[in-house]
Specification:
With about 425 residues, the protein is an all-alpha fold. The chain has 22 helices and no strands. α4 packs parallel to α14, α6 packs antiparallel against α7 and α11 packs across α21.
Length: about 425
């Protein structure tokens, strides 16, 4: 047996049991990378040194400060009650159309996505806010929980997307361009969700009856509560697009603005702020641990040469680009049913990205396409985390109902993936302006 093959077999013999046992994916990847490096070099020294160097580099990296800052931005926004303000505004503006309250849920998720970056947090928050109204107006439970589940997934596409940041780190691509690239695709996917809801409710009105009508005065009354939030979002996105500030600076500005907004409105309590910061620290540490472990594993793969071998094998198949694209999407769909989003990216990007570049696909475009598939992974059983976040928040709804409600929505994501394939300008237009 070739040494390269033996090394890979030993590494995966360590990685798979740890993964199945539920060990943190960052720790799993780091251990597998160290063991693989030992097989390659005959010493644990290089692997341990690699782990220490990556830990120092990641913890001291200026560009990676964007992760804890964006996470803090989301936790503080939630503590400031911004989600409730947004839902009330959209509820009054569009609730009166067929399926309008479900559409308002999607719109709120899209707006909240522009400041949270977490799909699970967005779905959990919308479960508490939107579900009582959807239930009060006799919306179909499947339609209701489906909208809440997939609405939250938009948070990993629209900036500040932690998932796009993680992809940028693993793929060594511009984080700023990736974040800007997610804007139009995120808005398109949200619009497709809304169109799907309206069409279904026009065909079957009992699924989502029209909500109450509000006067123009009542609609205008809610504007002061959301205008400051819209100003924060605009300052973050326009600042990055025009180069006024880097993603790190934009995140820092956003945190300060949300803190100021919550303080002026007297929305913060000491307990709420403490919980927001604790959640931010725990989540940031978890994400950065995955980054460190993935980089150790990637270094091992580079040492072993397997990434190059896989690239040459894929190119040697001489598949048509569209066939290769379909094959990649099928693999990611299957992985999405079995693994959590960050784990999928950490394991696969070092293996697939060299082939993507060799084929001639733009890595920025490919990152957005992958994140669209990760939206599907977040709502496909048995591992889709958004499904369980909604179940935990709405215990009276069965998991089977949540599964069924999500299916027709994530089919929209599959459609969007192929729209991005045939019309890559949707993804690449805004980054091209930077």
């Amino acid at each position: 047996m070739e040494h390269q093959t033996f090394s890979i077999l030993v590494t995966f013999a360590v990685l798979v049991p740890l993964f199945v046992a539920g060990v943190n994916i960052g720790a799993t990847l780091a251990i597998a990378g160290i063991v693989g490096t030992y097989v390659e070099t005959g010493s644990f020294g290089p692997g341990i040194n690699m782990l220490l160097l990556q830990a120092i580099d990641v913890s001291g990296s200026y560009s990676l400060m964007v992760i804890p800052l964006f996470i803090a931005l989301g936790t503080l926004a939630s503590a400031a009650g911004i989600t409730t303000d947004l839902f009330n505004a959209f509820y009054r503006w569009i609730g009166r159309i067929s399926g309008g309250i479900a559409v308002a849920t999607i719109a709120t998720c899209a707006a909240m996505a522009s400041i949270t970056g977490s799909s699970v947090a967005t779905s959990a928050a919308m479960s508490r806010i939107a579900w009582p109204e959807l239930k009060r107006y006799n919306y179909s439970p499947e339609l209701s929980v489906g909208a809440i589940c997939v609405g939250g997934t938009v948070a990993i596409m629209i900036p500040p997307s932690i998932t796009l940041v993680i992809y940028g780190i693993f793929a060594e691509q511009s984080i700023g361009k990736l974040l800007i690239a997610g804007i139009l695709p995120g808005l398109l996917i949200s619009a497709l969700y809304a169109i799907k809801i309206v069409i279904r409710c026009r065909i079957s009105p009992e699924l989502g009856p029209a909500g109450p009508r509000f006067t123009l005065r009542e609609q205008v009354e809610v504007m002061p509560s959301v205008l400051p939030f819209l100003g924060i979002v605009a300052s973050i996105l326009v600042g990055m697009l025009t180069g006024i500030w880097t993603p790190v600076e934009a995140a820092a500005v956003g945190v300060m603005m949300v803190l100021l907004l919550g303080t002026v409105r007297r929305r913060f309590t000491l307990r709420g702020l403490a919980r927001a910061f604790i959640d931010g620290v725990v989540t940031s540490a978890s994400v950065l641990l995955v980054v460190i472990g993935s980089l150790v594993f990637s270094n091992y793969l580079a040492l072993n040469g397997i990434s190059e071998a896989i690239t040459q094998w894929i190119v040697g198949l001489d598949l048509a680009p569209f066939v290769l694209f379909c094959a990649f999407m099928l693999v990611y769909f299957i992985l999405g049913m079995l693994m959590e989003v960050t784990s999928i990216l950490a394991l696969t990007i070092p293996l697939t990205l060299p082939a993507v570049i060799q084929v001639g696909w733009d890595p920025i475009w490919y990152g957005v396409v992958l994140v669209c598939m990760m939206e599907v992974a977040a709502v496909t059983p048995p591992v889709g985390l958004n499904l369980y976040a909604v179940k935990a928040s709405i215990p009276e709804v069965s998991l089977e109902t949540i599964y069924r409600g999500s299916i027709l929505f994530w089919l929209v994501n599959i459609l969007a993936v192929y729209i991005f394939y045939f019309f890559p300008e949707i993804v690449l237009y805004l980054p091209g302006l930077m």
